[in-house]
């Protein structure tokens, strides 16, 4: 009986890895709808550091929007949060 449970556990873990893309995409913290967006939250959302220049911010935004865009299966809320984070950081950089 324990061998069956172990086999099911291993199969489930493998399925989760496959479903999540084998960990290829870094997970970013989502900004909740009611949460105020500040520069620290925007940096966390885009996955950039304090010293990020305009090109780095735009590159991170493009990479994340590839999955978050509503036309590609993402949600409008995620796309809105990414756009707000980009605009906030570019307004501070530029």
Automatic annotation (TrEMBL):
InterPro entries: DnaJ_domain, J_dom_sf
SMART domains with a match to the protein in the record: DnaJ
J domain residues: 41-94
Name of this chain's protein: Dna-J like membrane chaperone protein
Organism: Sphingomonas jeddahensis
């Amino acid at each position: 009986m324990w061998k069956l449970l172990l086999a099911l556990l291993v199969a489930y873990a493998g399925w989760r890895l496959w479903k999540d893309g084998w960990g290829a995409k870094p997970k970013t913290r989502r900004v909740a709808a009611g949460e105020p967006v500040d520069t620290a939250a925007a940096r966390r959302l885009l996955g950039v550091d304090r010293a990020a220049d305009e090109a780095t911010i735009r590159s991170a935004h493009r990479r994340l929007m590839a999955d978050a865009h509503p036309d590609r299966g993402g949600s409008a809320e995620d796309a809105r949060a990414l756009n707000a984070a980009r605009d906030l950081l570019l307004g501070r950089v530029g």
